[in-house]
């Protein structure tokens, strides 16, 4: 008889990785195991790693250190590690340092982690090409709020940006069949999800690897038709892959929020070429104009990278002016750090990290003032919000402009009729930093 276990899972990294953690947890629960929210109650410590940035690898190292101490404190405990760390050039160093780990599970074996740990299953060959892709038949437990779920529509990436290790870590683009995505979405909505967040490394590349004609535009049309009182949020789009059809769908859909996450990374043509971004400054400016014209009250979230090798003071100044002119509602900035195995790591004219960080800080200082002005403009407006939680006398909610765990909150005096996972209309009355204070609307 298969012995049941109590497992704790540390879900590291971004929402794309969180979906994998939910699938790993689902496989354990389907086998009769129990999830613990305190590792001291568990006999299995699962870590789903991210290796995308040095900070992510540092987070993995810290979690592994905790897990090793946990294992040493009681007999019979096991540690299993999954995620893209196993595909990173620094993995041998991790494996040598953390010898107490019982199983290192590469991406292709994500769905088989439990069998590999307990049932003597044979792991996939080391260095094997990434082919793993989740589907609607795999058991999954939501580790998010019950009314919020991420819908992963593809994995891997073919963009091959010069600074990015994703193609090395996750492999080439692999899109799910449209029917598979719809089936999972329908199940999530039937189970009470009110905000469905479509994610991938690049959702606008969805279907580019398929011969059956699937595109993000076609997928969104079908998702928008699903019955139920829910919204759809889109994360991680690429400016080079927008089409007139997609913009039309975004403008006319009834459930898709007017919120687009579109990492632009830079505006200088020379830097964009060096980044291998497949676009240029003119296209980016024209696309932003088209999107804002087509989608009323659009919130644009973007990210930029400062300090790519060879970035001049003039090119950085161009980026600063672009940010001022564009007035993005949401923005993040990363200081360039060379990733092993990427073309940018070998480029000449590497810029000192402290210079890249200084530029990033300056750009964010510009953005803070823009965001504060944008938030103040909302005072007096009526917003439809989704309540995430109620703590004491305060309800914490989000409107269309705010993705969970990324953006800002709307704080409302709680009332008895308010429940997490419900939509209400509120009136914005003031700001609190970049958050908003509101009251329930009478209209």
| CA radius of gyration | 22 Å
**Gross morphology:** globular
Report low-confidence residues grouped into runs of 5 or more. Answer: none
Task: Name the helix and strand elements from N-terminus to C-terminus, one letter apiece.
Answer: EHEEHEHEHEEHEHEHEHEHHEHEHEEEEE
Percent of residues in helices: 25-40%
Strand content: 15-25%
Number of contiguous helices? 12
Based on helices, strands and strand pairing, what is the structural class?
A: alpha/beta
Span of the ends, CA to CA: 60 Å
Average pLDDT confidence is 96
Largest sheet: 6 strands, parallel
Number of strands: 18
Trace the largest sheet across and list its strands.
6-9-10-11-12-13
């Amino acid at each position: 008889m298969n012995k049941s276990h109590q497992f704790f899972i540390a879900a590291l990294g971004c929402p794309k990785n969180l979906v994998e953690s939910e699938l790993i947890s689902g496989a354990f629960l389907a086998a009769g195991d129990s999830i613990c929210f305190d590792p001291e109650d568990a006999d299995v410590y699962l870590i789903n790693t991210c290796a995308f940035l040095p900070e992510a690898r540092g987070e993995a190292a810290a979690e592994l250190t905790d897990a090793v101490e946990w294992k040493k404190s009681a007999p019979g405990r096991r540690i299993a590690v999954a995620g893209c760390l196993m595909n990173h050039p620094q993995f041998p160093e991790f494996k040598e340092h953390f010898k107490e780990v019982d199983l290192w599970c590469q991406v292709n074996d994500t769905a088989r982690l439990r069998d590999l740990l307990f049932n003597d299953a044979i792991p996939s060959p080391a260095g094997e090409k990434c082919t793993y892709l989740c589907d609607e038949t795999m058991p999954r437990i939501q580790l998010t709020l019950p009314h919020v779920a991420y819908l992963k529509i593809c994995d891997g990436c073919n963009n091959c940006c010069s600074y990015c290790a994703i193609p090395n870590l996750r492999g080439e683009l692999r899109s799910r069949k449209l029917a598979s995505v719809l089936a999972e979405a329908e199940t999530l909505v039937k189970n009470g999800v009110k905000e469905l967040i479509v994610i991938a490394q690049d959702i606008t590349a969805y279907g580019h690897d398929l011969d059956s004609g699937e595109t993000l535009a076609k997928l969104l049309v079908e998702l928008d038709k699903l019955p139920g009182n829910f919204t759809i949020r889109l994360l991680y789009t690429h400016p080079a892959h927008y089409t007139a059809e997609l913009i039309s769908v975004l403008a006319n859909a009834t459930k898709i929020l007017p919120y687009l996450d579109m990492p632009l990374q830079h505006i200088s043509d020379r830097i964009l070429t060096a980044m291998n971004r497949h676009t240029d400054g003119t296209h980016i400016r024209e696309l932003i104009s088209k999107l804002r014209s087509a989608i009323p009250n659009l919130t644009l979230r973007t990210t930029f990278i400062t300090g790519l090798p060879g970035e001049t003071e003039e090119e950085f100044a161009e980026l600063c002016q672009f940010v001022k002119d564009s007035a993005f509602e949401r923005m993040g900035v990363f200081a360039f750090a060379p990733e092993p195995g990427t073309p940018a790591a070998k480029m000449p004219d590497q810029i000192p990290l402290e210079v890249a960080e200084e530029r990033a800080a300056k750009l964010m200082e510009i953005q803070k003032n823009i965001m504060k002005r944008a938030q103040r403009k909302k005072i007096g407006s009526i917003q439809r919000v989704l309540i995430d939680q109620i703590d004491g006398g305060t309800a914490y909610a989000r409107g269309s402009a705010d993705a969970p765990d990324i953006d800002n909150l709307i704080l409302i005096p709680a009332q008895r009729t308010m429940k997490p996972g419900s939509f209400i209309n509120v009136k914005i009355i003031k700001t609190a930093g970049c958050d908003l204070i509101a009251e329930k609307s009478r209209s």
